[in-house]
Design a protein that fits this description.
Helix content is about 30%, strand content about 35%. By secondary structure, it is of the alpha+beta class. The radius of gyration is 25 Å and the shape is elongated. The termini are far apart.
Length: about 210
């Protein structure tokens, strides 16, 4: 009896997990986004462009009146359903409203200039650094007052595109070119990023 009960309980748990994997809420696509599904991929088209999401083996995508449903075959991990849903939602947002990441360049004499294919940067090295943006990613530059000192100017580099990962990757590469100086705050930083400043040797000596 105990063995039979245990087996039934395991079967019930397994069925429950499968049901949970299949019972996610349907995805509601943003207005103006069209979706096409074949056996291997999902294609989404919006006002900003198009994007594709691969469908892993064991999963299926169905477009219904109530939205887009992702279901798993028996034995497929529930996490795969959540991952595929997240990719579809991310791509739908990208082709409809896009993604943006802003990087600030601060420092006396530091400059950023938009080029045909990306951005040219002067940030304390003996040479200018040029970065080419990949297809689908746009880089824009403008000069604005430094919020920490309105008398000084800094540069805002806006990275935008339909692919969230690509936008984040380009912004991260720009930031790595000259990480923010902890003593003077010069260099690249994300908008809103807090940079902990360290006291210089003179300041430390004065405090002592």
């Amino acid at each position: 009896m105990r063995a039979g009960g245990t087996s039934a309980a395991r079967s019930s748990v397994a069925s429950g997990r499968l049901a949970m994997a299949k019972n996610y809420r349907p995805i509601t696509l943003p207005d103006g986004v069209q979706m096409q599904v074949d056996q291997e991929k999902v294609t989404l088209k919006g006002k900003l462009g198009s994007g594709t999401v691969a469908i892993p083996a064991g999963l299926s995508v169905v477009v219904e009146k109530g939205g887009v449903s992702v279901t798993a075959q028996s034995g497929s991990p529930r996490a795969m359903v959540g991952t595929l849903r997240a990719h579809i939602i991310s791509t739908a947002k990208g082709v409809s409203s896009g993604y943006t990441k802003i990087v600030e360049l601060r420092g006396m004499g530091y400059r950023a200039q938009k080029t045909k294919d990306g951005v040219k940067l002067a940030c304390g090295y003996s040479h200018e650094v040029e970065m080419t943006a990949p297809a689908g990613v746009d880089v824009d530059v403008k000069q604005v007052p430094n919020p920490d000192d309105p008398k000084e100017q800094m540069f805002e580099i806006t990275v935008s595109g339909t692919d969230k990962h690509a936008v984040g990757d380009v912004a991260a590469k720009i930031r790595r070119i000259r990480r923010p100086d902890p003593y003077h705050g010069k260099g690249f930083r994300y908008r809103g990023e807090r940079v902990r400043k360290k006291a210089g040797k003179r300041a430390v000596g004065t405090q002592a």
